[in-house]
Amino acid sequence: MSGEKTILVAGTWDTKDDELSYLSEVIRGQGGQVLSMDVSVLGDPKLPTDVSKHEVAEAAGSSIQAAIDSGDENTAMQIMGAGSARLALDLWREGRIHGVIVLGGTMGTDLALDLCGALPLGVPKYVVSTVAFSPLLPPDRIPADVQMILWAGGLYGLNDICKASLSQAAGAVLGASRAVEAPAFTRPMIGMTSFGKTVLRYMVTLKPELERRGFDVAVFHATGMGGRAFESLAGDGAFAAVMDFAPQEVSNHLFGGLSAGEGRMTHAGRAGIPQMIAPGCYDLVDFVGWQGVPAPLRGRECHAHNRLLTSAMLAAEERRAVARSICEKLAGATAPVAFFLPTAGCNEWDRAGGELHDAAGLSAFCEEMRSRSPANVDVQELPCHINDVAFTDAVLARFDRWVAEGVISH
Question: By CB neighbour count within 10 A (0-12 exposed, 13-18 middle, 19+ buried), where does 308 fall?
């Protein structure tokens, strides 16, 4: 079929030739094309692959012999991970592949995260893994739009059970490559962080107003993976400006909650992207509700948002620590930073009389922000709540000023 999509099928073809060949057969049987990549070290596939293990190792600035001579499987696989990531990105840039599927156990999954992480948002990425959805997989290594399926019953050899997983994944990646509408960035993009409307509401006003001004708006759910995706895109320069109004993942990282990684709130600054910041939900630490309260957070006032997620309140001194961390992160920014400080509360439960309101804690945070804010950060205090109209009015006024001054490119 002319113009059909080509899927990169990667894995250790020396030990999983049958499984990888089956994946390839299903893709071809559905009218797709396959480009095969071998990331083995010790053995060889039954038939040559389109990209050999030697090419993969050389792309990492090494060789298969060096990987073998290391005497360490972890070192060897990191060589292959780096090489496969570079080659996959090259193949995509050249228009030779339209999606990727990687198969493996822990070793193959470790490599798969490197390979998929090298490809931009919108390129279909599927990982068939014996440890899919496992706590072994750190959020900061999982690409923003990767899809995973458990390789059930597939550790060694083909069978009817594992074929169900393999065939689904093969069909899914081919279907995704046909259907995907990759980001076109025809309008400048604003990256915004938030939570649902029960706790933060500014996006309801800001999104249509920004769109009316000719901008596109992507709102990221700041629950670990959402912040990770936000930071990844900011680092790639995808945004004309960011409105990071829900930096709770900074608090989460400090106190053992749902972290988006150490680099949260740093990528936009490094990339020279103008930043508007507000402390939405800074006072809470989110954790996995069904696992119980983590030891460091026990004895605190908590709010069960649903059966998945619970929030614990931070004490005054801990809020000061959050303010210091935010200031340290923003100090490295290479473009203008505006920090909006709503002094009447930073989430819907944090209002006078609200179930999670702590006036002394809020005051401590505000005081620390005033005293610790670096010279490159313009702090604008607002005598309102973050969900009040006065907050969005102030944000839009600053936004319009920055557009007029050329700080934000239109």
Answer: exposed
Tokens 């920090």 correspond to 339
Q: Which two tokens stand for residue 338?
A: 């505006």
Q: What is the mean pLDDT of residues 130-147?
A: 84
How would you classify the pairing of strands 284-288 and 309-313? Answer: antiparallel
Under a CB-based contact definition with an 8 Å cutoff, are residues 8 and 101 in contact?
A: yes
Strands 216-221 and 241-244: unpaired
Rounded average pLDDT over 330-342: 97
Q: Which residue type is seen at 229?
A: A
DSSP letter, residue 245: -
- 8 Å CB contact between 266 and 234: no
Question: Among candidates 92, 82, 88, which has minimal Cα distance to 57?
Answer: 82
3-state secondary structure of 116: helix
- Do residues 83 and 59 lie in contact, with contact meaning Cβ atoms separated by under 8 Å? yes
Tell me the C-alpha distance between 244 and 191, whole Å. 8
Beta-strand ranges (E) seen in 48-204 are 99-104, 125-129, 146-150, 189-194
Residue for token pair 């990844």 = 232
Mean pLDDT value of segment 197-226: 94
What span, in angstroms and rounded, lies between the C-alpha atoms of 264 and 254? 11
Q: For residue 37, what are its two tokens? A: 């990549």
What's this model's pTM, rounded to 2 decimal places? Answer: 0.84
- In Å, how far are 289, 302, 336, 369 from 356, measured between CA atoms? 17, 8, 33, 21
Length of the chain measured in residues: 410
When the pLDDT of each residue in the chain is averaged and rounded to a whole number, the result is: 93
Q: Please tell me the distance from the alpha carbon of residue 130 to that of residue 231, in angstroms, as a whole number.
A: 28
C-alpha triplet 175, 179, 181: angle, nearest 5°: 145
CA distance 148 to 123: 14
pLDDT band (50, 70, 90) for residue 60: very high
Distance (Å, whole) CA 297 – CA 294 = 6
Task: Compute CA distances 361 → 148, 343, 365, whole Å.
Answer: 41, 11, 6
Q: What are phi and psi of 111, to 5 degrees?
A: -65, -40
User: Tokens 């040559």 belong to which residue?
Assistant: 48
Check residue 259 and give its pLDDT. 85
